[in-house]
Design goal:
single chain; alpha+beta; 5-stranded antiparallel β-sheet; two-stranded antiparallel sheet; 18 helices; binds adenosine monophosphate; binds magnesium ion
């Protein structure tokens, strides 16, 4: 290893830290917790850590940053992305934002444990902001410690990369480091604090700006700064919209509505439940951001939420995500109202969310079923009945759609032969009563009629379906098994899942077990079926 050459590679990254150079800074540079007024961010340094160690890195994200394998496996990479050394051009800062948490305005939140390192311009001219999560306190840390534990960092690292490969808009993750320092967490807030290994993820995205970055400024009646941040965002992240004006603010908001709708359609397609869709966790770019107590649907249940903190109201349950995104966009509309001063065009833009979602949902369902197009006359009912059938008994969503692709469009088979391919999707065989089977078979016969109309080969339909219905998702128990091993110092499974989830739509020989149903032991195990916000 030529460490001299490696060091120079990280030091040769080109930084253009536009966010901090074009927007006002907090004048106070002491790292104490405070309300930060009249500024979009505060300068703050990562806290050095004792004994950092690389757990995993993403080769695709490294490529985005023009980093070679050699650099990513160097000691300098560990030092820089654990926050111990600033590479040339890095200017660390934490941003100020607010947000509605669980429906209520929570005031200033901000990057309480995220420290931005700067914005890299890669060789292709792409802009990628780098952010360490868990690198120590900032002025926005409120009563918390600014740290992150290995458990939640493995989950964030793996899931952001998995989502990307599934085709879901998301922030990315470059690296996952252990800090070598313990972090105390009371995982279920029940008086059982425990020391866990500390970790740091380096997240990467074109920008980390959230709805809450705008909301906090409006809440403080700082309209001048609100305009500055909106103009900056349009110039940097939405340059195709042109020079900011009242009309451009409206088309900008309309585009945020569209992008958010598209993101939510993807979540519903793959069975992802974010778990904490507070407005501070909504990206202005329509990226999935802040992987906390998220989860993947195993049995199809629109009422499921992985987040124990939300167990009562289930505000952020799977089936409610489209409505919540709409509500969150309504809060963003309120925040930018002072720039537009007309309610109607903002309401019209909100209607774009509903339309885009509806259209996107139909196209998505047609894709999941392998249809040429979604014909509302027949397919509305067909989809609705399918979603009803899926909820009648515990049915693994991911497996069901993959197996549905195996169904033959020849109507001649017996009922038993017809449902045979689907049997692997069920969790509780006793639930498959004759009444249930009749309903399933009726639906399948309708489906077969419908696909016969399209007159495409089974082969083509299967290919289409398998391109949108994943074979592998980051099943909750798989992430937990990888965490269990990582906590024992064995990072092989984290890396194995990272590799597996690079090709989620493929059949991967030898990896069938990762596509199988959740095993019974995982049904009630913390981390597999229930998660809290503690991370
Ligand atoms: P979240 O629910 O993770 O989106 O976090 C809400 C707010 O709490 C954000 O401002 C976070 O930065 C902050 N936060 C969460 N965990 C910590 C922590 N361990 N230390 C400091 N701030 C935190
Ligand atoms: Mg957050």
């Amino acid at each position: 290893m030529n460490s001299q050459r490696n060091i120079s590679q990280l030091d040769q990254l080109i930084f253009d830290n536009r966010f901090i150079h074009e927007l006002p800074a907090d004048r106070d540079t002491i790292n104490n917790r405070r309300q930060v007024i009249g500024a979009c961010y505060s300068h703050v340094l990562p806290t050095p850590v004792a004994k950092p160690q690389l757990v995993a890195y993403s080769r695709e994200v490294a490529e985005l940053l023009d980093l070679t394998t050699e650099v990513c496996e160097s000691e300098d990479f560990i030092q820089v992305f654990a926050g111990n050394r600033l590479a040339v051009g890095m200017e660390p800062y934490a941003t100020c934002y607010g947000g509605h948490q669980f429906g209520y305005w929570a005031g200033q939140l901000g990057d309480g444990r995220a420290i931005n390192l700067g914005e890299v311009i890669n060789k292709k001219g792409g802009r990628w902001a780098l952010q360490l999560k868990g690198a120590g306190p900032t002025p926005y840390s409120r009563t918390a410690d600014g740290l992150a534990v290995l458990r939640s960092s493995v989950r964030e690292f793996l899931c952001s990369e998995a989502m990307h490969h599934l085709g879901v808009p998301t922030t990315r993750a470059l690296s996952l480091m252990l800090t070598g320092e313990p972090v105390v967490r009371d995982m279920f807030y029940n008086g059982n604090p425990k020391a866990e290994p500390g970790a740091i993820v380096c997240r990467v995205a074109p920008s980390f700006t959230r709805f809450g970055n705008f909301q906090i400024l409006t809440a403080r009646r700082d309209i001048e700064l609100l305009k500055k941040l909106a103009d900056y965002t349009i110039r940097t992240d939405f340059p195709h919209l042109g020079k900011p004006s009242a009309e451009v603010y409206i088309s900008w908001f309309a585009e945020v509505c569209r992008r958010t709708a598209e993101m939510i359609v993807h979540w519903q397609r793959v069975g992802f439940v974010h778990g904490v869709m507070n407005t501070d966790n909504m990206s202005i770019l329509g990226l999935t951001i802040d992987y906390g107590p998220y989860g993947w649907l195993e049995n199809y249940d629109p009422d499921w939420t992985p987040n124990t903190t939300d167990a009562g109201e289930k505000r952020y349950r799977f089936g409610n995500q489209p409505q919540i995104a709409f509500w969150n966009l309504g809060q963003l509309a309120n925040a930018i109202y002072p720039l537009v001063e007309q309610a109607e065009p903002l309401q019209d833009a909100l209607a774009i969310y509903a339309d885009t979602f509806e259209q996107g949902w139909q196209t998505m369902m047609a894709g999941k079923l392998g249809l040429n197009t979604f014909d509302p006359a027949t397919d509305e009912e067909l989809s609705k009945e399918l979603l009803n059938v899926l909820q009648l008994v515990e049915t693994d969503m991911t497996i069901f759609y993959r197996q549905l692709a195996m169904i033959s469009s020849q109507d001649l088979v017996s009922d038993d032969a017809l449902i045979l391919p689907l049997m692997t999707a069920y969790y509780v065989p006793e639930q498959l009563t004759s009444g249930y089977k009749i309903r399933l078979i009726n639906w399948l016969r309708l489906y077969i009629k419908r696909i016969q109309q399209d007159a495409i080969s089974d082969e083509t339909r299967r290919e289409r379906m398998n391109a949108v219905n994943p074979n592998y998702v980051l099943r909750n128990y798989l992430a937990q098994l990888a965490i269990d091993k990582a906590e024992q110092g064995d990072f092989a499974m984290v890396n194995e899942l990272l590799e597996l989830l690079r090709h989620p739509y493929d059949e991967q020989p030898g990896k069938e077990e990762f596509a199988a149903k959740r095993p019974d032991w995982a049904r009630q195990r913390p981390g597999c079926s229930m998660l809290s916000c503690s991370s």
